[in-house]
Design goal:
There is one protein chain. By secondary structure, the chain is of the alpha+beta class. It has one domain (13-153): Thiol Ester Dehydrase, Chain A, CATH 3.10.129. The chain is built from four helices and five strands; from the N terminus they run βααααββββ. Strands 1-3-4-5-2 form a five-stranded antiparallel β-sheet, with helices on one face. Strand 3 and strand 4 form a beta hairpin. It is elongated, with a radius of gyration of 18 Å. Pfam families: MaoC_dehydratas. It comes from Saxibacter everestensis. This is MaoC family dehydratase. Belongs to the enoyl-CoA hydratase/isomerase family.
Length: 156
């Protein structure tokens, strides 16, 4: 008997549903090590991310998770479900905001709504999909928002 093989992949252009909310699970708990590593590797010397004593004197009273790590994780949580193996390229991000901070130990959950999709005029077999990503912490508070434009392959 031959076993059937299934490879995890994202959605083809035709499969993106304008009437759905895609919930990306599991979430990702953000650790101090994640934040320190990302902040160091990206050369972001902001004391709010690295210096606990300094951050204690600031309005939130503790270190903040680097917002670029939050954005990267927000998008990353969507990849397996939406774009794994079907994306051609990210075309751009807009309307990025961080309504509430993320702290060490918070768990980030992501959800995505498809705002628009259209076939590419210049690249046959591909389409442009506009996605609205929302990140929520473990309490359901919105901590990140981003609109992303992507080029996605059509079904072969």
């Amino acid at each position: 008997m031959t076993r059937r093989e299934i490879v995890q992949q994202g959605l083809w252009f035709e499969e993106f549903d304008l009437d759905a909310v895609y919930l990306h699970r599991p979430g990702r708990t953000i650790t101090e090590a994640d934040n320190t590593w990302f902040t160091a590797v990206t050369m972001n010397t902001q004391a709010l991310h690295l210096d606990a004593a300094f951050a204690e004197t600031e309005p939130f009273g503790q270190r903040l998770v680097n917002s670029m790590f939050t954005l990267s994780t927000l998008v990353g949580l969507s990849v397996a479900q939406l774009t794994q193996g079907t994306i051609v390229a990210n075309l751009g991000f807009s309307d990025v905001s961080f309504p509430k901070p993320v702290f060490h130990g918070d768990t980030l959950y992501a959800e995505t709504v498809v705002l628009d999709k259209r076939l590419s005029k210049s690249r046959p077999g591909e389409g442009v999909v506009t996605l609205k990503h929302t990140g929520r912490n473990q309490h359901g508070d919105v901590v990140a928002l981003a609109t992303r434009s992507t080029m996605v392959r059509c079904k072969p």
